[in-house]
């Protein structure tokens, strides 16, 4: 039996299907590895409620992240494999079309986990597109290190938004910034100055 399984795993005939199955598995595992510790820490530090509510919140966020990432990988790999098979060649357009469809179906449903994943990716692609523009010669390569300017604009904009257009920011970011910048202006005694926030 083990020999026949190993023969199938080594077969080029089944490789596309096996890659889809392993992609589904890797999406589930990666989603769990990324979300569980994040949900655990954020829940223990910032959420109120019973222990049962906290455990449920951690498990729900972990399941959602893991399931969505696994489904997205399944869709993406299935669609790119299908398009490559139909056209008998690989194309850059296949990646975009497959991810576009998968993104709409899986990550287009609004929930906090999808919002965080989409925002995470947005920041990475904006940064990556700026690098691509330099790489392709659309904009000149900066003479010095652009990272300090990038950081300055990011922080300048986000604090301006927080102070004057707070409702336009994501709720978890509003909470973090309130804790850092507004709650630090409030205390009544040594206890809530050093140990407790309020």
Can you give a write-up of this model?
By secondary structure, the protein is mostly helical. It has 2 domains: 2-108, no CATH class; 147-198, no CATH class. The protein contains 8 helices and no strands. The longest helix is centred in the middle third of the chain and has 37 residues, at 51-87. The radius of gyration is 23 Å and the shape is flat. It comes from Dreissena polymorpha (Zebra mussel). This is Peroxisomal membrane protein 4. It holds the Pfam family Tim17.
Structural class: mainly alpha
Quickly count the domains.
2
Separation of the first and last Cα atoms? 64 Å
Mean pLDDT across every amino acid position: 91
The biggest beta sheet, please? none
User: Helix coverage percent of residues?
Assistant: over 70%
The rounded Rg comes to 23 Å
Could you provide a short overview of the structure?
The protein is mainly α. The chain is built from 8 helices and no strands. This is Peroxisomal membrane protein 4.
Show the helix and strand layout.
Blueprint: H1 2-10, H2 15-46, H3 51-87, H4 92-107, H5 112-135, H6 147-164, H7 171-182, H8 190-194
Helix pairs in contact: 2-3, 3-4
